[in-house]
Design brief:
Blueprint lengths: L2 H17 L1 H31 L2 E6 L6 H4 L5 E2 L2 E2 L13 E5 L10 H11 L2 H29 L3 E2 L14 E2 L7 H28 L4 E4 L4 H13 L12 E3 L5 H28 L20 H32 L1 H6 L2 H5 L5 H38 L3 H7 L7 H28 L3 H23 L7 H4 L4 H12 L5 H4 L2 H23 L2 H4 L8 H10 L7 H32 L2 H27 L3 H4 L7 H24 L9 H10 L7 H27 L5 H14 L4 H21 L3 H18 L11 H4 E4 L2 E4 L1 H20 L11
Parallel strand pairs: 1-4, 1-7
Antiparallel strand pairs: 2-3, 5-6, 7-8, 9-10
Helix pairs in contact: 1-12, 2-12, 5-6, 9-12, 9-14, 9-15, 9-17, 12-14, 12-19, 14-15, 14-17, 14-19, 15-17, 22-23, 22-27, 23-27, 25-29, 25-30, 25-32, 27-28, 27-30, 28-29, 29-30
C-alpha cells in the first residue's frame, strides 16, 4: 500500500469538500452564528415564559383575614406578599383573585368570571378532598398494620367520637384488622376519585386558572381553638380542616404556578405555627426538634464540572457523528450520482488506498465539526451564565460555571479522535453501500438514533465508567470524558481506563473500515442499480424460486426477527418469572423458560427453513456426522466448562454484578423438591435444540453463502452471545459459539453442536444438585475447590483441560469444511 496515493486521494477529497460552500457553512460558519443566537433566544424565551403572571384563585379567602382572625397576612390586593418567597420577584409572577371584594376597587369582569366558574365546581372539589382524606387514612392504618404484623402485634382501630382512628394503636385482639377488606376499600375510593377527578380535569383544562386554592369554612376558627388549647396545655383531638390546592402537573404553566403558590403557603403556614408557639410560650424551634445543619461543600469549580460533564460528552458524540454524516454520503453515494466513481477507479491507487483517503477526509470534517461546535457552545454557555450571574440564587450558582481545566480539554481532543474515526468509518461503509444520497440518509439515520440513545444512557446520574463499560462503543469514551470532567482533583485512577477505551474504539474503527474496504472492492455494490420492491412479486418468489439453503439476507432477517421477539416478549417472561418465583413455583419457572425458548428461537428458525428453502435438512444441517466429530463434541464440554468457570472467576472484577433474578433462578435449579428432569429440560434440552437450530442451523447456513466460513462462524457466535442478556453469559456464550460453529462447519452437521450444548448446560444443572458432603469428601475435592460459590478446578486439572481443549480445537481448525450446499448435478 502506498501512503503517497492515500495522501493524494485525501487532498483531492478535502479540496472538493472545501469548494462546497454548504460544507464550509455547516462546519465553520453555522456554529459561530447558531450558538450565540440560540443562547440569547433561549434565555429570553425562558425569562419571558417564567415571568408571565399566572392566574391563582382563592375561594374562602375570608378565612384568611388577618385583622379579623389574627392570622399572619398572606396577600395584599392581587399579589402574594413578597416576603413569602425566596425570590421576592416571584410575587409579581402570580395574579391573585379572591372571592372577597377589595375596598375601593372595582373587581374586573375577568376576575368575577373566574370566581363564578370556580364556585360552580366547589361541591365536586369538596367531594374529591373527602375521598382523598378517607383513602389516606386507610392507607396509613394499613401501613401501621403491616409494620405491627411484622413485629408480631396486631392493630385495632379505636372508634370513639373524641379520639379519631389512631393507626398507632397496637394491641392483641380476637378481631384484627382485615387487610384484604381495607385494600378493597382503597380500590373503591380510587375508582370514585377517578370519576370526580375526570370531570374536574375537563373543567380545569378549559379555564384560565392555573392554581385553585379552596379554604374550608371554619378554618380560621379551628386554628384559633387549637391555639387556645395549646396555650392552656390542653389535649388537641380536633383536626383542622385542610385547604385544597388544585393544579394540573401536565400543564407547565400550572406546574410553575403551583410551585410558587406552594412555597408561599408553606412559608405562611410556618408563620402561623410560629405565632401559636409564641402565644403558648414555647420555643420557636419546637416544630423542628432535630433541625440538622445542612452544609453544601460544592465549590464553584465543582458546579461547573458537573455542568460540563453532561454537556461536553453529549456534544462531542452527537457532533462527531453529525460531522461524518454528510461528507460520507457525498464521498460515497454522491460520487456514484455524479458519475465520477469510474474515473476514480482507473487511477493508479488501489481500492484500499482510495477508501483510506476518503476515510481520513471524513474523519477530518468529523473532528472539526465536533471540536468547533463544542468550542462555540462552551463559550456561548459560559458567557450567558456570566450574564445571569447574581440574578437570584440560581444565577449565583450559574455564574460559577467556569471553563474546565486544560488537562480535561486536552482529553476532550484526544477522545474526539477515536470517536470521529469510528463514526467516519461506519458512515463511509453505509455510504458505499447506498446507491444514492437519499438512500444513504436512510442508512445513516438509524446510526444517528442509536448514537443518541447511547449518549442519553451516559447522562444518567448513576452511570459511571467501569471495566466493562470502558470497552463498549461510544459509551466508553463518553463516560471517560464525563468522569474526567467531574474529577476536579486527582485523575490518576480514571486514566487507567484510557487504554481500554482507546484500544477498543480503535478496534471497532478498524472493523468498520475493513467493512468499508470490502464493500468498495465489490463491483456489485459500487455499480448496483436502484432496487424496487414489489410485495406481490417477492411473495411469489419465496414460494416459486426457493434455494436449497437460505441467503445471507434471509439469515440476517432471521437474526432481526429473533431479536425483535426477545425484545417484545422478554418483559412478559420476566413478569411471569417474578410471579412464579414469588409464589415459590419452580416448576412453573422451568415450564415458562422452555416455552419461551421454543417460541422465540426454535420456531422462527424452523418456520423460515420450511418456507424459504427447498432442502430443510441442508438448511438446518440435519445430517449424520463422522464419528470423530461426535467424539470431539463429547470431550470438549468436559474440558471447556472448567476453563470457562475459571475465566469468568478471574474476570469477576470486569463484569457488572449479576442481577438478583439469576440467584433466584439458581436456587430454583438446585431445589431438591423439583424433579431433576425439569431443570434439565429448561436449561439443557430446550436451549441445545432451539439455539442450535437457529444459530448453527438456519443462520449459519445463510451466512455461509457469503463464502467466508470464519466470518459466518463469528457473526453467528456474536448474535448467539447477545441474546443471553447478561454480560457474563454474553461473553461466555460468544466464545463457546465459535467452538460450536466450528464443529458445525467442519462436520456439516448440527448434531455434534446439540450434544456439546446439552452436556455443557447439563453439567451446570448437575453441579447445582451436588450434595454439600460431596464437595468435602471423595473425588471432587481432589479435582476442584469452592471459591465465592463457584466450583473451580485446581491448577493441574485446569492445565490438563487447556491442553486437551487446545489439541481438539487445533484439530478442528485444520479439518476441511463440509459442503454447505448440495452439489448441483
Amino acid at each position: 500500500m502506498s501512503w503517497k496515493n492515500v495522501r493524494l486521494i485525501f487532498l483531492r477529497e478535502v479540496r472538493d469538500q472545501l469548494r462546497d460552500r454548504r460544507t464550509l457553512f455547516m462546519v465553520a460558519i453555522l456554529p459561530l452564528l447558531l450558538y450565540p443566537a440560540l443562547g440569547i433566544g433561549m434565555v429570553e424565551m425562558t425569562l419571558t415564559f417564567s415571568q408571565q403572571a399566572r392566574n391563582v384563585v382563592i375561594l374562602g379567602a375570608a378565612e384568611l383575614d388577618s385583622q379579623r382572625h389574627g392570622l399572619p397576612p398572606m396577600y395584599v390586593g392581587n399579589r402574594f406578599l413578597p416576603t413569602l418567597f425566596t425570590d421576592p420577584g416571584d410575587a409579581d409572577r402570580l395574579y391573585l383573585t379572591t372571592d372577597v371584594p377589595r375596598e375601593g376597587d372595582a373587581i374586573p369582569d375577568a376576575d368575577r368570571a373566574r370566581i363564578r366558574v370556580a364556585q360552580s365546581q366547589i361541591e365536586s372539589i369538596h367531594e374529591l378532598a373527602e375521598l382523598v382524606r378517607q383513602r389516606r387514612e386507610i392507607e396509613t392504618l394499613l401501613t401501621a398494620y403491616s409494620l405491627a404484623a411484622a413485629s408480631g402485634l396486631e392493630v385495632v382501630p379505636q372508634e370513639t367520637e373524641e379520639t379519631p382512628t389512631s393507626p398507632d394503636a397496637v394491641a392483641t385482639s380476637e378481631d384484627p384488622i382485615d387487610a384484604v377488606a381495607l385494600q378493597a376499600e382503597i380500590a373503591e375510593l380510587l375508582e370514585a376519585e377517578e370519576v370526580v377527578k375526570a370531570s374536574l380535569t375537563e373543567w380545569f383544562q378549559h379555564s384560565d386558572i392555573q392554581v385553585l386554592v379552596v379554604i374550608p369554612e371554619g378554618f380560621a376558627e379551628s386554628l384559633k381553638q387549637q391555639t387556645e388549647r395549646l396555650v392552656h396545655r390542653e389535649p388537641i383531638h380536633q383536626e383542622i380542616p385542610h385547604p385544597v390546592v388544585l393544579q394540573n402537573s401536565a400543564d407547565e404553566k400550572s406546574q410553575i404556578a403551583y410551585r410558587r403558590v406552594r412555597e408561599a403557603i408553606d412559608n405562611w403556614e410556618h408563620l402561623v405555627l410560629q405565632g401559636q408557639l409564641s402565644a403558648a410560650g414555647l420555643p420557636a424551634s419546637i416544630d423542628k426538634p432535630v433541625d440538622p445543619t445542612r452544609v453544601d461543600l460544592a465549590q464553584g469549580d465543582q458546579i461547573a464540572a458537573n455542568l460540563w460533564s453532561k454537556l461536553f460528552p453529549t456534544l462531542l458524540v452527537i457532533m462527531a457523528v453529525t460531522g461524518a454524516f454528510y461528507p460520507a454520503i457525498d464521498l460515497g453515494a454522491g460520487e456514484k450520482e455524479r458519475g465520477t466513481m469510474e474515473t476514480l477507479l482507473i487511477c493508479p491507487a488501489t481500492r484500499t488506498e482510495i477508501v483510506l483517503g476518503k476515510f481520513f477526509t471524513v474523519m477530518l470534517f468529523s473532528i472539526s465539526t465536533a471540536l468547533l461546535n463544542i468550542a462555540c457552545m462552551g463559550a456561548t454557555g459560559s458567557h450567558m451564565m456570566n450574564l445571569t450571574a447574581g440574578a437570584g440564587p440560581t444565577g449565583a450558582l450559574m455564574g460559577d460555571a467556569q471553563f474546565p481545566p486544560l488537562a480535561s480539554l486536552a482529553w476532550l481532543v484526544i477522545l474526539a479522535v477515536p470517536l470521529s474515526a469510528l463514526f467516519s468509518s461506519l458512515s463511509l461503509a453505509f455510504a458505499m453501500l447506498a446507491r444514492s444520497s437519499k438512500e444513504g440518509q436512510y442508512y445513516l439515520t438509524p446510526l444517528l438514533l442509536v448514537t443518541m440513545g447511547l449518549t442519553f444512557f451516559c447522562l444518567y446520574p448513576g452511570v459511571e465508567i467501569d471495566p466493562f463499560k470502558s470497552i463498549m462503543p461510544v459509551v466508553g469514551p463518553a463516560l471517560l470524558l464525563k468522569s474526567l470532567l467531574l474529577a476536579t482533583g486527582n485523575t490518576a485512577e480514571l486514566l487507567v481506563y484510557a487504554i481500554p477505551v482507546l484500544l477498543s474504539s480503535l478496534a471497532y474503527c478498524a472493523l468498520a473500515l475493513w467493512w468499508a474496504i470490502e464493500l468498495f472492492s465489490q463491483e456489485s455494490v459500487l455499480f448496483r442499480e436502484a432496487e424496487r420492491f414489489d410485495l406481490k412479486l417477492w411473495v411469489a418468489h419465496i414460494f416459486r424460486d426457493k434455494d436449497s439453503t437460505p441467503s445471507f439476507t434471509e439469515a440476517a432477517f432471521c437474526i432481526v426477527l429473533i431479536l425483535m421477539l426477545w425484545f417484545v416478549l422478554m418483559p412478559v417472561q420476566q413478569s411471569a418469572f417474578a410471579e412464579a418465583l414469588i409464589a415459590g413455583d419452580s416448576i412453573e419457572v422451568f415450564r415458562l423458560q422452555t416455552i419461551f425458548m421454543i417460541a422465540t428461537i426454535g420456531t422462527p428458525a424452523v418456520m423460515m427453513g420450511l418456507l424459504l428453502t427447498s432442502r430443510v435438512n441442508w438448511t438446518l444441517k440435519l445430517r449424520w456426522p463422522a464419528w470423530q466429530y461426535w467424539l470431539a463434541a463429547l470431550i470438549l464440554p468436559f474440558t471447556l466448562q472448567p476453563i470457562s468457570v475459571q475465566l469468568l472467576h478471574w474476570l469477576g472484577w470486569f463484569f457488572p454484578k449479576l442481577p438478583e433474578g439469576i440467584e433466584q433462578l439458581a436456587n430454583a435449579i438446585s431445589d431438591p423438591s423439583v424433579p431433576v428432569w425439569w431443570p434439565l429440560l429448561a436449561v439443557a434440552v430446550a436451549p441445545a435444540v432451539c439455539e442450535e437450530l437457529a444459530f448453527r442451523g438456519f443462520i449459519l447456513s445463510g451466512l455461509q453463502r457469503s463464502g467466508r466460513n470464519w466470518l459466518a462462524i463469528v457473526i453467528s457466535a456474536v448474535v448467539f452471545g447477545l441474546i443471553h442478556g447478561i454480560p457474563q453469559q454474553q461473553f461466555n456464550a460468544a466464545l463457546l459459539g465459535i467452538i460450536i460453529g466450528l464443529l458445525a462447519v467442519r462436520s456439516g452437521s448440527l448434531l455434534p453442536g446439540v450434544l456439546f450444548h446439552f452436556i455443557y448446560n447439563g453439567m451446570q444443572v448437575a453441579q447445582s444438585r451436588l450434595p454439600e458432603s460431596s464437595l468435602e469428601e471423595g473425588v471432587i475435592p481432589t479435582l476442584f475447590h469452592v471459591d465465592e460459590g463457584s466450583l473451580l478446578p485446581h491448577w493441574p486439572v485446569l492445565l490438563v483441560c487447556v491442553a486437551v481443549s487446545a489439541t481438539l480445537i487445533t484439530w478442528l481448525v485444520k479439518q476441511p469444511s463440509a459442503p454447505s450446499t448440495p452439489c448441483k448435478a
